[in-house]
Amino acid sequence: MAEKTNPMREIEIEKVTLNIGVGSPGEKMDGVRGFMEKLTGEKFVETKARKRNPVFKLRVGLPIGLKTTLRGEKAMDILSRALDSRKRKISPRNFDRRGNFAFGVKEYIDFPGAKYDPKVGVFGFDVCVTLKRAGKRVEQRMRQSSKIGKSHFISRDEAIGFAKEKLKAKVEE
Predict the structure, then answer these.
(1) Is 28 in contact with 120 (CB distance < 8 Å)?
(2) Closest by CA position to 147, among listed 131, 155, 136
(3) Per-residue pLDDT tens for 101-159?
């Protein structure tokens, strides 16, 4: 007889966030935005500089990057393709103590389904994966929010196990 697991202990993907640092506003950012919106099917939001850096000609509030958040089936599809671009390898250093993990795709042409666009050039992007367990909403809701016990948090080792089992990733140095 198969062993039943507690459904409240099962780990699932809450969201996948794609982040691209373009460096400067203008034509290049518009090209990157159009390309990534076509690739993912989602709208991207501009990220702005928080600090002034005269060496890189950055001012506070200057758009320097793009990001989007994916959930559900679309998130799983993009995550699977991003892992394929890395040959399904993730370093254990990519996992934080809360069980989330992030990795980079060095060049978008490595991403399955992407073709080189001379107007855009070559750039990479970050993929950040946020994991959760059922019951996370108890902590986040507006009415009657309460704390979640430490045993309900996802540890680094549990997240590595999830990546190996569910995402078929190789977690090795």
Answers:
(1) yes
(2) 136
(3) 999 988 888 888 788 878 778 888 899 999 999 888 888 889 999 998 888 899 999 99
Domains and CATH numbers, the chain: 16-171 (3.30.1440.10)
- Residue 13's DSSP bridge partners are 131
Structure tokens at 50: 């928080």
Residue 63 CB neighbours (<10 A): 15
Q: State whether residue 115 is helix, strand or coil.
A: coil
How far, in Å, CA of 88 to CA of 81, rounded?
9
CB count within 10 Å of CB 102 equals: 16
H or E segment to which residue 133 belongs: strand 125-133
Geometric angle at alpha carbon 122, from 71 and 38, rounded to 5°: 40
Kindly tell me the burial class for residue 148, based on how many C-beta atoms sit within 10 Å of its own C-beta (0-12, 13-18, 19 or more).
middle
- Candidates 138, 13, 1; CA nearest to 73 is 13
Give, as one character, the DSSP assignment of residue 45: E
| Strand arrangement of the beta sheet that strand 125-133 belongs to | 45-48, 63-70, 11-21, 125-133, 101-105
